[in-house]
Amino acid sequence: MPDSNIEPTTQRRALLPFLADGHSGGSRSAMTCIYRCGNACAHPAPNTTENEYLGDIATAAVSRRGVLQAAGAGALVLGTGAGSLLGGQSAAAAETSGMVTAPGSELSFKAVAPNKLDALVLPPGYSQHVIIRWGEAVLPGAPAFDIDNQTPEAQAMQFGYNNDYVWFLALRDRDDLGLLVVNHEYTNEELMFRGYTSGDTATEDQVRIAQMAHGLSVVLVRRSRGGEWRPVVNGSRYNRRITAQTPMRLTGPAAGSDFLKTALDSTGKNVLGTLNNCAGGLTPWGTILTAEENFNQYFAGGDGAPEADKPRLARYGIPTTSFKPAFGYRGWEKYDERFNLTLHPNEANRHGYIVEIDPADPGFTPLKRTALGRFKHEGADISLASDGRVVAYMGDDERFDYLYKYVSDEPMRTDQSRGARRHNLTLLDNGTLYVAKLTGNSPPSEIDGTGTLPSDGAFDGTGEWIALAQGSTSFVEGMTAEEVYVFTRLAADKAGATKMDRPEEVQTNPRTGAVYLALTNNSARQVVQVDEPNPRPFNRHGQVLELVDAGSDGTALTFGWNLLLVCGDPSDPSTYFAGFDKSKVSPISCPDNLGFDAAGNLWIATDGNALGSNDGFFAVSLEGPNRGLVKQFLSVPVGSEACGLEFTPDMQTVFVAVQHPGEVTGASVDNPASVWPDGEYARPAVVGVWRSASGSKRIGV
Fold first, then answer.
1. How far apart are alpha carbons 424 and 286 in whole angstroms?
2. Is the Cβ–Cβ distance between 459 and 576 less than 8 Å?
3. Could you give the C-alpha distances from 143 to 189, 217, 239, 493, in angstroms and in order?
4. What is the Cα Rg of the chain in Å?
């Protein structure tokens, strides 16, 4: 393993030209901006309302790791009432089995130094193993991967591209056997196909392969005595690929709405595929929630859509003045007409939801839950209120968009009957959808843009939840309930919600119940938009927020918040690390995914490090004298994003999803910016990391 003190070496990396004019010029490469979100930052933010700015306050979704604590139900049983063999989950299982260590447990690993190495760099005493790569078999009979002989049929049986969020679901309550469920967010065609130029020249096979490389993979994995995890393909009844062509159902109060009907589906209840799956959540009844984020970039023909539809399309970032988008044009509509909005203007309304799947049932039809609203979902992590009702916090990952919450009407049933399963599968269809309005509690004169703390010693404040709709009842003047659920952004505009900046994932501390929200960045924030939750203008590095619901169970209509971290170079006076000595912390930029270890330490995965180093995993102490101590645990290869951040129940493995390695402007299969993990060209992959040194086998502590 590379030592944390190793000096960065020269990479196999050329000076490569921009893919296209008009790149936004931030910390990400032009390739990332084009394929991740259609270069959204190069365009005006879709939110043009006059609602107040209270910026980067964050995403919302109370953690899957808080499900057990909130439910008080012990080990999680997946597939309730269906005879599932799946058992306890992740750190939540450790929490309920007495494995939690003392509050504020020391982060004992040696911090990894910032670097630009084309490698997965770990602290001394840790080992790694690539579990599964893009193109490797998921289903029996899948051919061996050959980059020069790809087919849509093969990709539909193989591990998809750009592995983002990862869940590990223990099988039969074992620590050494379980399911990996992995999101495949988007595709980088230049890094997949030799000679690829653009969507204008994309072949039908290339489009179909890309569609099959989206969605999710469900893979049975087994751990060896040496700590390595390997996929089990033959003999697994659980393995499954879900793609952009998988049949799904729209459910909830908007299902069947005229806004969801197309010439290809007159019912408005049946849809093909899930797109741009980012993070998600685990329900206490054992299903997975996967979030559709930047779905807008797959559609062309907005200029030919009905005039009445164009303001709604534009609010979701879909161009309405030209046939194809200026950036990130994929050409899918050439071979799949539902992506042509001139022909099918309602097809875009059928994407942008939270999608529920049951990993224990390969025949389960994925369900798009309209009651949770339609926007660019980052995730929807779930907890249970004290009365058993479901609470889901959700962030809309766009500059100056909003924070949402959903509370179910009925409580979850905990018995193991089939009736309980049927009941629990309705909980995300019947409830109330809210949007957040936030305020700071310091005089505006004390928030001067320098990052100096106000006189009360903290960036903090309060907030309220504004109801948007419940079932068939709309609380937004001038909008029906169906309109609220399908055009949720416009409903929140009308409700006067607080503008926020790219809210990402949220997790709940299983020890304290506090909710932590990752706010990646917002370099577009102007000086006049600085306020207490956003104490810096042109914020390229992001921050992390603590959110506390009054009543501590998520159903209250008011809450409090404070900034835990204001990220960036610790030598920058505008940064803040919960009051901890900044000379002793690792620099951190652009927080994205979050998680918790069994000791209650917060873990952060970064995306788009604006300090110039590779992204990675970081651990943060939250209690005692070390509160605010940030230590970098690992870094990922050149051009990649650190995703996954999922622990096994025994805390002896952390899964790392290395997404889009080599995603550097101008890179290609034949001119790679990264050759991780195999030395020829880059391939996204999921890696298991474990502690190989003598002593404790737990990650981090």
1. 10
2. yes
3. 21, 16, 16, 49
4. 23
* Residue entry with tokens 């393995």: 239
Which uninterrupted H or E stretch holds 545? strand 543-549
Find out whether 42 and 33 touch, Cβ atoms under 8 Å: yes
Q: Residues of 635-645 as b/e, b for ≥16 C-beta within 10 angstroms?
A: bbbbbbbbbbb
Which residue carries 């071979």 as its tokens?
335
Q: Whole-angstrom Cα distance, residue 119 to residue 619? A: 20
- As averages over each run of 10 residues, the pLDDT of the chain (701 residues) reads 31 30 50 66 68 39 33 32 37 31 70 98 98 98 98 98 97 91 98 96 98 98 96 96 98 98 98 97 96 97 98 96 91 98 98 97 97 96 90 90 94 95 98 94 93 94 95 98 98 93 84 85 87 88 87 84 95 96 97 91 96 98 95 98 95 97 97 98 98 90 82
Going across the sheet that includes 367-369, the strands are 270-272, 247-251, 367-369, 354-357, 288-292, 277-282
The model scores a pTM over 0.85: yes
Give the whole-angstrom CA distance, residue 692 versus residue 511: 27
Q: Take residue 330 and report the two structure tokens written for it.
A: 């994929």
Kindly state the helix (H) or strand (E) to which residue 216 belongs, with its residue range: strand 215-223
- Name residue 265's amino acid: D
Numbers of helices and strands, H then E, in the chain? 9, 32
Q: Measured between alpha carbons, how far is 517 from 545 in angstroms, rounded to an integer?
A: 5
- The residue type of 601 is N
Beta bridge partners of 177: 222
Q: Rounded to an integer, what distance in angstroms lies between the CA atom of residue 697 and that of residue 701?
A: 9
* Distance set, CA 163 to CA 14, 160, 689 (Å): 25, 7, 16
C-alpha to C-alpha distance for 552 and 509, rounded to whole angstroms: 12
Residues paired with residue 403 on neighbouring β-strands, in sequence order: 395
The 10 Å Cβ neighbour count of residue 399 is 21
Instruction: Please name the residue ranges forming H helices in 455-542.
Output: 481-486, 488-495
Return the closest-CA partner of residue 154 out of 107, 192, 123, 102. Answer: 192
In this structure, what token pair is assigned to residue 382? Answer: 């779930």
Alpha helices in 65-112 (DSSP H): 67-71, 90-96
Whether residue 543 contacts residue 591, with contact meaning beta carbons closer than 8 Å, is answered with yes
Q: Which of 467, 293, 259, 499 is nearest to 380 (CA)?
A: 293
- Token digits of residue 184: 């495949």
Amino acid, single-letter form, for residue 64:
R
Backbone angles phi, psi at 172, to 5 degrees: 55, 35
559 with 391: CB under 8 angstroms?
no
Other Cβ atoms within 10 Å of 234 Cβ, number = 9
The vertex-662 CA angle with 657 and 668, nearest 5°, equals 135
- In angstroms, the CA 697 to CA 693 distance is 8
